[in-house]
Give the backbone structure.
Amino acid sequence: MAFGTASPRRAPGRLKSWELDEARLRQLKVNQNRLMDELHHTCQWGTGERWGPRDTETGMRRLSLSDADKEARDWFVDATRALGCDISVDAMGNTFAVRPGREQGPATFAGSHLDTQPSGGRYDGILGILAGVEMLRVLQENRVETAFPVGVVNWTNEEGARFPISMMSSGVWAGDIPIGHAHALQEVGGGTATVKSELERIGYLGLIPTSYEAMPMAAHFELHIEQGPILEKEEQKIGIVKGVQAYRWYTVEVIGQEAHTGTTPFGSRADALLAASRMICASHTAAADHGALASTGVLTLSPGSVNTIPGKVKFSLDIRAPSDNIVDRLEKHLKSDFDAIVSTESTKALPLSVTWRTDSVSPAIHFHKDCIAVVRASANSVLGGEALLREMVSGAGHDSVYASRRCPTSMIFVPSRNGISHNPKEYTSPEDCAIGAEVLLQSVLRYDGLRSNLNS
Amino acid sequence: MAFGTASPRRAPGRLKSWELDEARLRQLKVNQNRLMDELHHTCQWGTGERWGPRDTETGMRRLSLSDADKEARDWFVDATRALGCDISVDAMGNTFAVRPGREQGPATFAGSHLDTQPSGGRYDGILGILAGVEMLRVLQENRVETAFPVGVVNWTNEEGARFPISMMSSGVWAGDIPIGHAHALQEVGGGTATVKSELERIGYLGLIPTSYEAMPMAAHFELHIEQGPILEKEEQKIGIVKGVQAYRWYTVEVIGQEAHTGTTPFGSRADALLAASRMICASHTAAADHGALASTGVLTLSPGSVNTIPGKVKFSLDIRAPSDNIVDRLEKHLKSDFDAIVSTESTKALPLSVTWRTDSVSPAIHFHKDCIAVVRASANSVLGGEALLREMVSGAGHDSVYASRRCPTSMIFVPSRNGISHNPKEYTSPEDCAIGAEVLLQSVLRYDGLRSNLNS
Ligand SMILES: [Zn+2]
Ligand SMILES: [Zn+2]
């Protein structure tokens, strides 16, 4: 793999980030082939299920703190150190590669994660780290000097697949998840390994406390695949992520009365599944009216016999919206809808009832206006205008959610083919990966420039 | 237990069934206390779950061909033999107790079953047999001579609970189920006992072939609890059962596309559960419009994760109506409804599809007009008018379905409290049991009289 050299057309001597005008910023080009070659090179560690005939047409199975994860981490440390970075590993294995700037101070980070789902793809998380490393290479080959340090951070166990807390180690860094709790977490599937025992085993139990105080970040930018269909459908290239949807998870239980399907007329039934079906339909209608989402992914019933009307149904309800207010209003609306369904379906002799249990509440996240502005300016620059970019709200959680609680943050989305993610067939074209990486590079440089201007 | 003696008020000497006018028929009274005492006496064999404080407030668990079933059968043989019956046991353990008449010929039977569900009650099947034995007692104490033989038949494994074919041995008798298949059937739950080995073990593997030719019946009347809520709701006492609903069972499979609940807008989904919910609602509406029933008792989905839109849903569909034509029309209607739902819900990129599998087809059964007329006349006589009786169609299968294929048949329904059956709490009041038994008694005598008139 060629590491590239500075283009002879570029200015000799050292480029200073705080002196870069639009024209000069545009000359800092990501090397698409190098980026993709390097990305697929790292997918030798934890290669997953094959879905196509080419070498690169497999998924990934790189569970957090596994041997494969250790090899990918070792590559990350070696590659960034070779590019002039100082490496810090904290007590959760979060790995911060920092390239010094003109002045001391917290670095502006590109961050994401190298772990994957057990049946995941080559882009979720991985693209964000690899684009960060490519950023370091472009800075190095162009001899760019930044005002403050810039860096790349690999967060541990974002997926929550092996150890069942998502965004685990950015959560510890932000002070929202106690480190003792995270360290003691056992792997799913009955194994006895814990986060701490696996960190020790692979040599990534660092000495630095995991904390936004011990390791402050000036800003956090995350390039990530969309994991949804919007950019592809709208034929756009970059999503400027303004925040993350609020969501709430509920378990709804409907109690009716078991009865024989043959001998019980409609007027004498309390059919828990019919009521639940009406609720699922109603949740869809109401969510659409509110500009929100409602989804049911789990439904169980009892007793579960062809000729017995179900007496009990439990189903999950996942509602999401860009703001907490909308989620509030939708929840109220649905509680009233479900009560109405229950009273309409209830016969006098056999009442139905419905109860809600709230399983999870996640407020809306609003990213920082400066970071959003910097991403917008960078996307505009890379794409030559507004047509191919859009503002979006992320539907899924990311390390940027926790990062945003302790430093200015935003995200950059690139298209996911067919909206598919957490699946071996997850795919983003090399062109789109490179566009995203270039927007990430510019965003970090523009933010560094912004800090420099504020300080001068 | 007193066996009763002829009432001194009744005519001395022998009553002849073919000479009984309305007034004399009405004098033949069922002894309610004796009937109920005897019924609860037999519930000592296979007593089930307790639901109330009184001795008789338990359910039943008397699985076919179990030790408890053998004891109930032995009681049946002893009791009917003591009442002057000849006993025949066929190769399926069906037990025919026949009281001779003036002339030779096939008997007019009261029939039902002594086996129960694993978590059943004291009335389903049991009432029909006990009312038959009470009928023999009333005939004996009143010294009634019938024109032709009358009898009581206990059919083996009606419930299909231990050996998984419902109405198994009336089905063999009717020639619809091959005896080899029935004999070889293994008990559910992994045991190695077969129908034949259990018949041998409890001493009920009879020598007579199981066949309507070897053991012809002149008619078959079955007193049974309704197992539904209609009589209780309408405050009526007797259901004159004109036949059994047609029913069909299907498995409907809806295929959509798994996707993330947070990142996939409604317009990009192919939500198999939302489509299935719309289908379940639509099946209810269409069935109501057709005067039919539609029910879903089983529903499974995959992958079954809170934040994943289900890509596949399978559900059972049970449709029933009094005639085959209605079931036909409803099936066509629903196939078109479900196709419409699938095309409305499908987005261009992600089509949904629906497929039907027919699991079971049971045509409508129409009972014999003479038997229906005889039951109507008897119910009229016992209830003193039309107000407390109604014609009905049975929603569930019974041995009378197979009996009706080979001899004139009808059924008599009495109220089920709260419509509950196949449950320990199944209950019919002593008054209602006695009314039903009296209608059964009169029906058998009236039918015997009808045969006698036809032959004279
Ligand atoms: Zn990710
Ligand atoms: Zn029954």
